[in-house]
Amino acid sequence: MELNIEGGGRKGVFTGKRALVVGGSGGIGKAVALGLALRGAAVTITGGNSEERLEKTLAEMDAMSIRSREEIKRHSGFLCKIGGAEGLSPEKAASFILEKTGSPEILVISWGPFQKIALHDSQPEDWRFLVENNLLFPGIMTSLVLCDMINSGWGRILFFGGTRTAEIRGYLDTAVYSAAKTALGTLAKSVAKCASKAGVSCNVICPGLTATEYTTPEDIVWYQEKSPGGRVLTADNIADYALDVLQNHNLNGAIIPVDGGIWV
Q1: Based on the number of CB atoms within 10 Å of its own CB, is 86 exposed (0-12), middle (13-18) or buried (19 or more)?
Q2: What's the CA gap between 136 and 155, in Å, rounded?
Q3: Is residue 239 within 8 Å of 35, Cβ to Cβ?
Q4: What percentage of the chain carries pLDDT values higher than 90?
Q5: How far apart are CA 246 and CA 254, in angstroms?
Q6: In the 8-state DSSP scheme, what is residue 136?
Q7: What is the mean pLDDT of residues 187-211?
């Protein structure tokens, strides 16, 4: 992974901060975690299923710390499968994660299951699965860390919405998923309203069609067809913007599409 390291080693807003990236072992979450490590944060990541992917990301984070010329941090990570028949409920997952990490100063939730299904075909279990994991889990995590952030006078929270969920709209085949992701905007604006005076900011980034290690070749073809100039976004593209958002204390309660003007 190549990140812009100009200014590495300078004291910055992330230096020495404790960051937690849920879903940080792969995809966009990994790119954000690496960027935070490069900028001096002590980062903890969670993954879902792959111990190998988790350990690889941790090794890359340690390398980023060395390249940043900051005091080397001890980054950490662990697996926590959330939702579904084999995963923890949102309540138990949030408690499990925070028991292991303590309350972070930076919380990034770059995780949330996607399901494409028409509204008239959606079953109660679809609603429960998608809403619990894409909205209820981030909401519980936020409630659990917010008091500590307010009391300390500093905090950053970042959610990732879905493609084209930066405003209220209708959907043909992702209504349940998109309804949950759109609601993250209300959560972020509520955090901003109640905690901005205490130095806490909370924002939502809604990425466009982004290629990651999880993207299939068939998906890439479709992404290219829907992206201006056929230029598909990468996880690094989104992470660069996410780090700017986390750094900017004047940006609060914002719902930001980072999609390049896709045609969907």
Answers
A1: exposed
A2: 20
A3: yes
A4: 84
A5: 11
A6: I
A7: 97
Helix (H), strand (E) counts: the chain = 9, 9
> Is the model's pTM score more than 0.85?
yes
CATH number of 18-208+236-255: 3.40.50.720
Q: What is the dihedral of CA 161, 165, 170, 171, to 10 degrees?
A: -50
Listed residue (203, 206, 78, 191) closest to 142, CA to CA = 191
> Edge-to-edge, what's the strand order for the sheet holding 255-258?
76-79, 42-47, 18-22, 106-109, 155-160, 200-207, 255-258
Q: What share of the chain is helix, strand, coil (3-state, %, to 5)?
A: 45, 15, 40
Place of tokens 């955090």: 191
Q: Provide the pLDDT for residue 6.
A: 40
pLDDT, one tens digit per residue, over 43-90 is: 999 999 999 999 999 999 988 777 655 555 679 999 999 998 899 999
C-alpha to C-alpha distance for 49 and 21, rounded to whole angstroms = 16
Task: Give the SS3 label for residue 27.
Answer: helix
- DSSP symbol at 19: E
CA atoms within a 13 Å half-sphere pointing along the CA-CB vector of 204:
30
How far is 153 from 48, CA to CA, in rounded Å?
32
pLDDT at 166 > cutoff 70 = yes
Encode pLDDT of 221-248 as tens digits: 999 999 988 999 999 999 999 999 999 9
